[in-house]
Amino acid sequence: MNIVWLGHSGFRIELEKAVLLIDPWLTGNPMFPAARRAEAVAGVTHVLITHGHGDHTGDAVSIAKEADVPIVGIYDLVSHWEASRGIKGIGFNKGGTVDLAGARVTMVAASHSSSFSGDQGPVYAGHEAGYMIAGDGHVIYLSGDTDIMADMGWMGEYHKPDIGILSAGGHFTMDMKRAAWAARRYFNFQTVIPCHYRTFPLLAQNANELAAGLPGVTVIEPEVLQPIAI
């Protein structure tokens, strides 16, 4: 398995026979080197979206059309894009599981909001979500944008993820201290990777507090386009 950060909340996850691009905001992302776009999208099999905000959906439609692959995510948003943008879609909902080239992806709850920009302001884009991604002998909990939730209790007990990719930049999501508390309280991670940070001055610029709050857990601060092999 390879986990590759694309900056902000974007990831390329290679597991089983899948190459998943998650929340691919490449164009205009200050963390992403535009000249390396082809490298980031090479061989993609599915585009996986957590919610409708532009810093998560920015390049989703263009990549899906270029690569002729489906966008996978909450039914409301995917159905809207199928009708209005002509993409292939796999729309499902919380509690549902889909098989993506051998990777088993289950949608779980998140606590945030979800919209995209319209002519008269934000337009509802279905619910925000996280994912449990199982494959290659591991289970990844991708939190999506969220705060701490009591639901994390049963999610950790039921799915038993050993890898956590956690939004932790603060202001729009839980911060590093809250993410560490949630990881200790609800999960038994071996590896934690922070995201939704460093992109703007408003967000946390390092994961020192996350690492300090998780003794015995490997906390990896990712670097853009540098694979993390697990």
Question: What's the total helix number?
Answer: 7
Structural shape = globular
Helix content: 10-25%
Order of helices and strands, N to C? EEEHEHHEHEEEEEEEHEHEHEE
Structural class designation: alpha/beta
What CATH calls the topology is Metallo-beta-lactamase, Chain A
Q: Estimate what percentage of residues fall within beta strands.
A: 25-35%
Arithmetic mean of pLDDT: 97
For the sheet with most strands, the description reads:
7 strands, mixed
Number of domains: 1
| Gap between N and C termini | 5 Å
Residue ranges: pLDDT <50 for 5 or more in a row? none
Q: Number of DSSP strands?
A: 16
Largest sheet, spatial ordering of strands: 6-5-4-3-2-1-16
State the CATH superfamily name: Ribonuclease Z/Hydroxyacylglutathione hydrolase-like
Query: Could you name the CATH class?
Result: Alpha Beta
CATH architecture: 4-Layer Sandwich
* Radius of gyration based on Cα positions: 16 Å
